[in-house]
Amino acid sequence: VSKRFQEAEVLARVDTHLQLRNMQLHLEDLVDERSAKLIRANQELRESEDRFRATFEQAAVGIAHVSIDGRFLRLNQKFCEITGYSHDEMLEHTFQDITHPDDLETDLDHLKRLLAGETETYTMEKRYLRIDGEVVWVNLTVSMLCQESGEPEYFISVVEDISERKQAEQALQEYQQRLKALAAE
C-alpha cells in the first residue's frame, strides 16, 4: 500500500536533514580544530615548563623558592652545594636556620621592607652556616612573587658563593695593614 505524501513536506524534511548533517560536519571540524589548538597549547606549555625547570636546575647560581615564613619550598642543586645540605635536608630547614646569627637581623629587616611594599627586591652579602659548620659567604638577591590578589606567595632567592672573593679581600686588608705597620717602623 503506498502512502500519500506532500511533496513540500518531504522537501522540507530532506532540507532539514541536510542542514543538520552540514551542521554536524561543521561542529566536527570545529572540535577537531580546537582539539589541535589545545594539543599545541599543551605541547608549548610542556616545553615552557621544561625550559623553566632546566634553567632553574642548571643555573650557575643557587636558586630557592622560600615561603613567607622562611621554609624552603623548592631549590636547585647549586643551592644545596653552596650550603652543603642535601635537597631533603634543606626542605626541613628555614633560611633563618642556616643564616649566620650576625646577619639574620639585617636579612629580616630587608624582608619586612619587601613585604611592606617599600622595595621590590634587595641584595645583600651574608653568611650561611653550612651543614659541616663552615661559614660560606654569599651574595643574596631576593624578590617576592605575589598572587593575583596582591598577597605575597613566596620569595625567590638567588645566591652566589662569594667566599673566595671575601677571602681575597681579607688577605688584601691584612697585607695592607702589614705594609702600614712596616712603613710606621
Q: Could you characterize the architecture of this molecule?
A:
The chain has 185 residues and is of the alpha+beta class. Helices cover 57% and strands 22% of the residues. The model has no long low-confidence stretch (mean pLDDT 93). A hairpin with a 5-residue loop joins strand 1 (62-66) and strand 2 (72-75). The protein is rod-shaped, with a radius of gyration of 32 Å. It has a five-stranded antiparallel beta sheet, sandwiched between helices. It has helices at 7-58, 77-83, 87-91, 95-98, 101-115, 163-184; strands spanning 62-66, 72-75, 121-129, 135-146, 152-161.
Question: Mind sketching the topology for me?
Answer:
Layout: H1 7-58, E1 62-66, E2 72-75, H2 77-83, H3 87-91, H4 95-98, H5 101-115, E3 121-129, E4 135-146, E5 152-161, H6 163-184
Antiparallel strand pairs: 1-2, 1-5, 3-4, 4-5
Helix content: 55-70%
List segments where confidence is low: pLDDT < 50 over at least 5 consecutive residues. Answer: none
Overall 3D form: rod-shaped
**How do the strands line up in the largest sheet?**
2-1-5-4-3
**Strand coverage percent:** 15-25%
Please identify the structural class as seen in this structure. Answer: alpha+beta
Q: Major sheet: size, sense and barrel closure?
A: 5 strands, antiparallel
Can you count the helices?
6
Mean pLDDT, to the nearest integer, reads 93
What Rg do the Cα atoms give? Answer: 32 Å
